[in-house]
Amino acid sequence: MSLLPKVNLRRTFLIARRDYLGYVKTWGFWISFLLPFIFGGFGFLMATADIELSPTQQVTILDETGLHKDGLLDLYDEMLEEKAREIVSTKAFFIQDKRQRTEFQRILKVDGTEAAQAYIADNVPGLSTTYEPPVANFDFIEPPADTLQGLMPYLKGESTISIEGKPAKLGGAIIFKTGSDPARPDAQYWTANVNKEDASRLADAYLKQLSRVNYLEPKGLSVKELERRVAESPETRLFDPTKTLEDSQDVNQSDTVPFIVASVLALMLWLTVFSGAYMLLTSMLEEKLNKLLEMMLATTRFSEIILGKLLGVAALTLSMMAPYILVGIIGVVGYVAFGPDQDVVKGLVSAFDAKMIIFLIIYLILGYVLYGAFFIALGSLSSSMQDAQTLTTPILFILMACAAVIPLGMSDPDSPLLRIATFIPFSAPFASIVRLPSDPPLWELLLSTAFLTLLCIGTIAMAGRIFRFGVLSGAGAEVVIAWFKRVVLRRKA
Amino acid sequence: MTAPLSLQSVSKSFAGKPAVRDVSFTVEPGQIVGFLGPNGAGKTTTLRMALGLIKPDSGSVKLFGEAPGENAFGRVGFLPEERGLYKKQTAREAIAHMARLNGLKKKQAFTLADEMLDRYGLGEAKRKKNKDMSKGMAQKVQLLAAIAHDPEFHILDEPFSGLDPVNQQVLEGIVREIASRDRTIIFSTHVMEHAERLCDRIILMASGRKVFDGTTEAALAEAPRRVTVASEMDGLADLIEPFAATVETRPGGDLSLTLKPGAQAHDILERSVTQGLRLSKYEPIRPTLHEAFVTLVGEDVRQDMDLNEGASS
What we know:
Oligomer: heterodimer
Number of strands of chain B: 13
CATH class of the largest domain in chain B: Alpha Beta
Largest sheet of chain A: 4 strands, mixed
Structural class of chain A: alpha/beta
Structural class of chain B: alpha/beta
Number of domains of chain B: 2
Distance between the termini of chain B: 41 Å
């Protein structure tokens, strides 16, 4: 007796083709397929149309103490400069020369954005762009009234202020009053829009800085100098003792990129298995409700219908994932070919080694077949969507729990939990992939694959029997319970 | 020539409840066999066992001389009792898909689908999606899908159910057309008239058992023979008494009698001539298969059948 069921490839292909085309002809498929492009296009449109999603708010400062307004405005300028520094720092990603990149980052940190921009213009002219300061969340304007009472109509929206000759709303007012201690003013923020907290956060940051100044400066210490020294403090360098000496043992992005790539691939694998298995469930249910299976069974083997469905939905899932896969491949290949950071390039090349590609394909197939066979079996036992949801809940919980191993691969790829998960067939595809960059022993991977393969064969055999029973009995969930009582508990009906 | 279907002492139970009990019959090549019986008689289970979709608990099934399976793929056209089509397929796609599963090439399958749809009055529905078709149209499309590959043996489970009288006529035409090509057909139904009009042979099922297997004429011979007579003269009741098993007086005075076994309708005519009693009405009633069935299956099943027919009418 052959372990594998007999199949006629032509009939299997015809069933797969019908399932594939049945879904491809739906609106839902094309919406899912085009979604990344739709989002991309929408984002591009928003960027080019320069639509203000959050217009700049007009805020005023009423400083009854006369001590804090300038300090607050200075702090605001510093925060804008910090924001600008974050934006300019992204240029480091494109500086190919490692020494130049380090120097650029140092200048940006110590001397600010304008100095960093000047460095780029002199040393990497290709990256030089006109400096555009970041858009502020709010503009400070002179108070339209001298008292809180006088500001009230503006804050309530009953009166408007004038900005460049046009009427505008006053968004809020920061008010400093004399507190019990001159070093601790009573700060208030008045606004009708209580959810917009940018200005109040700025006032909080100012008060914290004020506390630092009041504590340090009477002792002859400068807060500015402290901040400069903190910014210039050295950073801990990471070393990996398993790296060869010739290769330099310090840890850089070439060492961390494979772990990020493995986690992304494991996540993609999970999404593919999840969406594929769920589509198999709905496909099976549709088939059962269409009541065409019995007619097909007069001319087709059970095994051909199951395999055809698995292949058809696999092709469908890959088609739906194709835009994401394509963008990923273009991104990786593009970066490897033209990417500026050689450490990242090195990391990407080592992430996609032969072992990763081979095991990714193996786990993709086995993971999909395992969960797919479960969902086919459950779909054939369901006679409505409610039945299907009830029956699949436990397996969905298992699948969700398996997704939890993926973040572990980034933070602790050698954790005992991840090792155990490698040998549990349900979580093996995801756990093994995230562990691959840490180079687990080959026997562990092979044993995990063997367990998974055995469970897959068992699940397909079981799915075939359940499928046969479920389809011909018109069964629902209650039949499973009746069967369990009769066969397992050996109770008479 | 090998018999398309042969069942030997086949039995099947579901959860301990017998659905088919010790059923044996053989369908010979070229026959049109009516597989009759009320709902729950075991017809569908028997046909499923014939195709190998369900394994019998005991007994054996031979399809084209072998156990049902891949050897019969492409040689059988099966229309199941439960109807359905892929909703988003068009009529021609549905027919071509089944034809291709049965071995036809793509171009050949679509050409055939178009021809069949034209031939059976569904030409305009070729590119109509199944979800947009009426129930009758969809049912015809499914039948065409089942027979498109011109199989040697057709198994049709309740092909007439759910169809209006016009479409039932069309379907009878299709069955006759298939039979004219010397194909073998077994179809189940609980409406006797179709079997009466179409079949060479009928198999009657009741409560999972086969209660009759023979020609339509033989089945009709089992039915009670009735005659309606009337006379304006006295003595009619005495005249018919030796021949009548039961007598019923109809409104208007006509007597409807069921003949005793061995008695013939013309015996009444001969006796009336001999006795000089002029008959104003003499109508031998043609027996129906329904009556034959009711006689064969007995009172219990008769009540069950009446209930089912009441529900389906």
